[in-house]
Specification:
By secondary structure, the protein is of the alpha+beta class. The protein has helices at residues 44-55, 108-119, 124-137, 182-193, 209-215, and strands at residues 12-15, 19-23, 35-38, 61-65, 78-87, 98-102, 143-149, 152-161, 165-173, 198-204, 218-229. The protein has 2 domains: 4-83 and 225-229, no CATH class; 87-222, Aminopeptidase (3-Layer(aba) Sandwich). It contains 5 helices and 11 strands. The chain has an 11-stranded mixed sheet with strand order 1-2-3-4-11-5-10-9-8-7-6, with helices on both faces. The protein starts with 11 loop residues before the first strand and ends in a 5-residue tail after the last strand.
Length: 234
């Protein structure tokens, strides 16, 4: 059964009595790998102290709360509700006009361009950091999938492959090509290649794709919350 602790977190983990601190020096502006997972109920005052600890080494603040932990409200922080879904009964409509493949040496330039454009709204600094990180990862055991329509790259997803699970991460379709079955076709490709793995993803509870995932055969697993505070310039 997929749960909160199955979700991948990049960065180096430092376990403390009340929290786990994640630090990723390669991509310091990436929220998902630079922050704290709170492991016990905690007060607002304690959170503010931990926020200052984060700000000593990074520009943003991020707290993640597992399902069993109470979330204290902090002024000027954004609260996000996230849901974990596990693929149990695949029901993917495939668009035969879409070509899907694993990212390889020939498709790396397209994948990097797509990923950079997708990251750019979060800031040029982050987009460049992430591009450099992807270049390094693509030399290792990094797995990603890219989709084409009429020889044009239109969508991609990164796969975090473990012994028994595959997590879909950074999954997107270019805005101009959405609602054409591209996301569904990508997922059908992944499901066909990882028949003996449990496939899962994390969705924003306020986001439209959540209902789409349910229609495609994903079952709800858990809800967790995040508190974030952006740098003043953002």
């Amino acid at each position: 059964m997929i749960d909160f602790w199955t979700v991948n977190r990049y960065g180096t983990a430092y376990k403390m009595p009340d929290y786990i601190r994640f630090v990723d020096k390669e991509v310091p502006s990436r929220y998902d790998s630079n922050g704290m997972v709170i492991t016990t109920d905690i007060t607002k005052e304690q959170l503010l102290v931990l926020a200052e600890e984060q700000l000593a080494t990074q520009a943003h603040v991020k707290f993640t709360f597992p399902p069993n932990i109470t979330v204290p409200m902090l002024e000027d922080y954004e609260l996000s509700e996230l849901e974990i879904y596990e693929l149990t009964t695949p029901m993917f409509a495939v668009n035969e006009a879409i070509t899907v493949q694993f990212v390889d040496a020939a498709t790396v330039p397209d994948f990097l361009r797509l990923s950079y454009d997708e990251a750019l709204p979060f800031g040029e600094k982050y987009a460049k950091e992430r591009e450099a990180w992807l270049c390094r990862k693509l030399q290792q055991d990094f797995v990603a999938v890219i989709a084409y329509y009429q020889n044009e790259a239109v969508g991609a997803v990164e796969l975090i492959v473990q012994e028994n699970t595959v997590e879909l991460d950074q999954f997107f379709v270019r805005e101009a090509f959405q609602r054409q079955g591209i996301g569904s076709t990508i997922q059908a490709f992944i499901e066909a290649h990882f028949l003996y793995h449990t496939i899962f993803l994390v969705a924003d509870a306020s986001d439209t794709p959540r209902e789409m995932y349910q229609r495609q055969g994903y079952d709800y697993c858990a809800t967790f919350y995040e508190l974030t505070k952006q740098p003043p310039s953002l």
